[in-house]
TrEMBL record:
Enzyme class, UniProt record, top EC level: isomerase
Assigned keywords, A-Z: ATP-binding, DNA replication, DNA-binding, Helicase, Hydrolase, Isomerase, Metal-binding, Nucleotide-binding, Primosome, Zinc
Domain called Helicase ATP-binding: residue spans: 314-481
GO molecular function terms attached to this record: 3'-5' DNA helicase activity; ATP binding; ATP hydrolysis activity; DNA binding; zinc ion binding
Cofactor note as given: Binds 2 zinc ions per subunit.
Catalysis performed (reactions): Couples ATP hydrolysis with the unwinding of duplex DNA by translocating in the 3'-5' direction; ATP + H2O = ADP + phosphate + H(+)
Name of the protein this chain belongs to: Replication restart protein PriA
Top-level taxonomy: Bacteria, Pseudomonadati, Bacteroidota, Cytophagia, Cytophagales
Amino acid sequence: MSTLDLNPYLPTERVTLFADVILPLPLPQLFTYRVPHDLNDAIQPGARAVVQFGRRKIVTAVVARLHETAPSRYQAKYILELLDDEPLVNEHQLRFFEWMADYYLCAIGEVMNAALPSGLKISSRSRIQLNPDWDRSGFDLLNEKEGKLIELLEEHESLTYDEAAEKLDVKNIYHILKGLTALRAIILFEELKEKYKPRTIKKVRLVPHHTASEERLQALFEQLESNPKQISVLLSYLQRVPVHANPAYNEKGIEKSELKGTGISASSLATLTKNGVFEEFEVVVSRFPTTGKAEKLKEVVLTEQQTRAREEIIRLFQEKEVTLLHGITGSGKTEVYIDLIRRALDSGSQVLFMLPEIALTTQIVARLQKVFGQEMGIYHSKFSDNERVEVWQSVASGAISFIVGVRSAIFLPFSNLGLIIVDEEHETSYKQFDPAPRYHARDASLVLARQHGARVLLGSATPSIETYHQARTERWGLVEMLQRYGDAQLPEMELADISIEKKQKKLQNGFGTALLDAMRQSMTRHEQVILFQNRRGYSPWLQCQECDHVPRCRQCDVSLTYHQAAQELRCHYCGYHEDVPRTCPECDSPKLMAMGAGTERIEDDLKLLIPEIRVQRMDLDTTRSKNSYQQIIGDFEERNIDVLVGTQMVSKGLDFDHVGLVGIFDADRMLHFPDFRAHERTFQMITQVSGRAGRRDRRGRVIIQTHKPQQAILHKIVQGDFLGLYLDEIREREGFFYPPFAHLIRVTTKCEERKVAFQAATALVNIFSRHLGPSRVMGPEAPVVERIRNQYLQDVLVKLERGKLNLKAVKEMIRREIRTLETERIYKNVRFVVDVDPV
């Protein structure tokens, strides 16, 4: 037995703890802070701490690890405050953050910033207060504005910078603050505000004394009998809360608004509360409406094809971490998902079901809610900060075991993941483009699953070439469902050659005869139509018919898109907009013509070509508000819309019973996009939107307008020949050394000076070539749009053979060399953006 055990009165050694914390800033390392001794027993890895960074900045950090070693390069500041009694971020998440920062070549603080809902981050707000030690005898030395600010601070405990500036009627208050700070007349400080606020409701109940017995309740009635209005309040309460049957009912009380809604006197209720008859209290409630008890999941009656798929997936999960479910549109993948989710939940595991864009998949979400009810939570960017915090807390506490979410849902605090389903795995929406981390949620989910020992099911009717290659080469499992549910037929697909009609001047506003006739026939049969054009706005550009001038963005190297409804020209890269000119800015000619067709123009043209039809547009411009997308979908389901014109939004997750025709307005634009994935993307997009045509007992029809119907890729689309597409693509990518045979890392230099951006990119090419060999480095090359937001861009592409190089070492070299360039004076204004696995 130790001396300490023998004598409990001996003093224990005072341990000085240090915490390495993650700051929500793009900094390459963790920072060490000293733990106040009174927090030694409370602080844990994963908890949030408020710390000071630099002279004035107050930020919310996350504790990564604890130790007893002081930093050697700087004096550790103290942690100011600990926000959590229990870790907000669990051990799995901390490891996941570290992996993501390492793999995607970004700072772990950037990962944390993306992961935590902003409602969980403390914000600081600069405030001004009067220095209590200031001698007012110096007041006469102040100028007018300084004196007025002192007087304001004598009336108010403190003011924000903005409040002070507004009261003084000045735009720039900093010179006033500088003078008063020098005189030590004021104190500047940071007020911390925690953004998350739980939702509360006000309730009322009888003071418990009155409900203790029938006699006391009767005595209360006798006490109030001279005041009918107060008796009315009491009776109204007792009708809703039968305390005479059970006094315990009184504890929960009733919502104050509900009681007021019965027509009672509000002043009488206030008087009764003041006199100690009633008491008010607040309770915290969820921001999410209760959907009631989940419908009892009837054993989903799977078809023979679905049963085979389910059994094969379960078998493959025994030996492989990842399985691809390749099921054509309408094959019934959702029923298989539901069955597997239920099995995972029944085993006690958590489930993450990922969708590319939650707003575009309302039908499947509604279906899942009917099955899983309150077992299921939803997580996406359309939620408010407070709503996202509540979902986070529900997952952390175990209140919710099943999450349906977009890419950011991979950051939730799962502790026992058993299954991750990534639906429509080919979608580019899973890729985060800006800001860092530029992660791909599908790829990251594989790592997340491995950390938890979970299984991943990838689902798609048109898998990405990389995913299908992994499955075909048996690294992952492969299950295929190649028949539509209930023997429904695939749509009849046809190519409409509009080049001949264009020469004969028979095209009507871009519509060929075949598509227009088919739409009129659909109207006659009372069928609905979906028309796809992956370009929003009225027209891609305006052009002067005299001098050929095209209005361009002032900040980006692109033409301005014409939006007729708003009567403006708009840049879709930076948001710059201007009024539509009446005459040409160059030659003053009034002959400005809209060139090309976006969804807005197609909508207008259809109303002229077929006046009797009801047309609605669905694109980014018409779905900006929170519920606009659901409203359009609801109107289409209720058949208040005949033709739905839209961008890729109309291709995702929709299942309508009355769509007989899908029209592809312009297939060529997608095919000729300068990207090695152009054919793959075109196949995916057209196949997905075509899947909306025809269901169950009716065969749909798809018309694809093109100027070159002889293109081989179009015939593969018409034949639904995904395997043929894959074999062609995989052969070409192997020959030209593209994924899945190579890892790609793109580094983009951005600078307001074109020459400097090019010089920085050239320096990168030279450095990377020296380390990796010139055959693995491409560039520098200007992207399709060379200037965005007044920043000139240059791309450097690094290609690395899979399995032949140490990828981790190469990434570390890239990170190191970029940091070295950033320290050079010539490149001080250059921003280096690294994108690992660009799409």
